[in-house]
Specification:
The chain is an alpha/beta fold and 357 residues long. The chain has helices spanning 2-33, 49-59, 71-81, 93-100, 179-189, 199-212, 224-229, 240-249, 278-288, 291-301, 316-319, 328-333, 344-356; strands at residues 37-42, 62-67, 88-92, 138-149, 173-175, 216-219, 235-239, 254-256, 263-270, 304-305, 335-336. The chain has two domains: 32-136 and 266-325, D-Maltodextrin-Binding Protein, domain 2 (3-Layer(aba) Sandwich); 143-262 and 336-356, 3-Layer(aba) Sandwich (D-Maltodextrin-Binding Protein, domain 2). The chain contains 13 helices and eleven strands. Strands 1, 2, 3, 4, 5, 6, 7, 8, 9, 10 and 11 form an eleven-stranded mixed beta sheet that branches. The radius of gyration is 25 Å and the shape is globular. The protein starts with a helix and ends with a helix. One of its GO terms (biological process) is polyamine transport.
Length: 357
């Protein structure tokens, strides 16, 4: 009888423990969802401090800002945490395409009813191939690359990619250190897509790159404009924000939109599948899509603005900056990077051979 009673008491105690545990979990979940924080994951300085401070003051929500260097690094972190550590990630279009094809999708659909400023996004930047319904992503900015050169040192008229192969430019070019961008430029020179997967065309691009190597003096992902500014090189192929920095340092520098057609990359807001503060994530995205805030962000980071409500706030300096305010006609014919699947290995091989040449 005593043993039976003890067993009964043990069962009751276990049930009470389980009930209390579930209650504690529910309480923890409720507390977590109401935390006044939002965890942002993107490149360094991509959201200006001034904007972050305004959001915190307006909403009372603290921004925890974490950085990554590449989209691939971001994806590895999301995979490691199973999409549970961050609330808002700002990343590029092609990596969103990659993530959408994975068995376990690390993004959650965005409820646009909770983001009324979604209406401010310029329609030309919506419904792209990487997310045709904008199910998982909302555009933040657009980046592109261009040629910038010093006309006092370069005696040829540079109009496009093909001119970078001119022997007169021997040992005088800086290239942004990125395989898709440089190989893509080469494919465009040959009349192919920047997303080419045909092995014969890629091998042709590989041979073409070998002809370019004597002209290349510097590879630099982060500050290629510095080599141009300090006179180490006279020509550069780099991001618009970097070209803008070069021209600000020396207004005599010329910016060229390559006649073969530019590349463009959209950076987007996404919400990870297990974001701990989904409501705060929606508030942050909606805040960033305010026209005035959007203009402040792109004025600071000098990327192409994708927000139609921002134009009324743009300064003459921004509107006259060829590096960051690019005509719609150029943007509409620009080609976007796509996931090239198994051809990625070929791109890696071409790049490795090119740099080791």
């Amino acid at each position: 009888m005593k043993n039976k009673l003890m067993r009964s008491l043990s069962v009751c105690a276990a049930m009470v423990f389980l009930i209390l545990s579930f209650a504690a979990c529910g309480s923890q979940k409720s507390t977590q969802s109401s935390d006044k924080v939002v965890n942002i994951f993107t490149w360094a300085n991509y959201v200006p401090d001034s904007v972050v401070k305004q959001f915190e003051k307006q909403t009372g929500i603290k921004v925890n800002y974490s950085n990554f260097s590449t989209n691939e690094e971001m994806l590895a972190k999301l995979q490691a945490t199973k999409g549970s550590q961050y609330d808002v990630v700002i990343c590029s279009d092609y990596i969103i395409e990659v993530m959408s094809k994975q068995k376990e999708i690390l993004m959650q659909p965005i409820d646009k009813k909770n983001i009324p400023n979604y209406k401010n996004v310029d329609p030309q930047f919506l419904a792209q191939d990487y997310d045709k319904q904008n199910k998982y992503s909302i555009p933040y900015t657009l980046g592109t690359q261009m040629i910038v050169y010093n006309p006092e040192k370069v005696k040829i008229d540079i109009k496009g990619y093909k001119d970078l192969w001119n022997p007169q430019l021997k040992d005088s070019i800086v290239l942004v250190d990125d395989p898709r961008i440089v190989i893509g430029m080469t494919l465009k020179k040959l009349g192919y897509s920047m997303n080419e997967t045909d092995s014969k065309k890629l091998n042709q691009a590989s041979e073409e790159l070998k002809k370019l190597k004597p002209n290349v003096k510097v590879f630099d992902a982060d500050t290629p404009h510095n080599s141009l500014i300090n006179g180490d090189v006279s020509v550069g192929y780099m991001y618009g924000s970097q070209a803008s920095a070069a021209v600000k340092a020396n207004p005599k520098f010329k910016i060229v939109y390559p006649e073969e057609g530019m590349n463009s990359e959209e950076d987007n807001f996404i919400i990870p599948v297990k974001a701990p503060h989904k409501e705060n994530a929606e508030k942050f995205i909606n805040f960033m899509l305010n026209g005035k805030i959007s203009n402040e962000a792109t004025t600071s980071n000098e990327y192409v603005n994708t927000n139609k409500a921002a134009k009324q706030y743009m300064s003459k300096e921004y509107l006259n900056n060829k590096a960051v305010y690019i005509p719609d006609a150029e943007l509409k014919r620009a080609e976007r990077f796509k996931d090239v699947g198994s051809a990625t290995k070929t791109y890696d091989r071409i790049w490795s051979e090119f740099k080791q040449q």
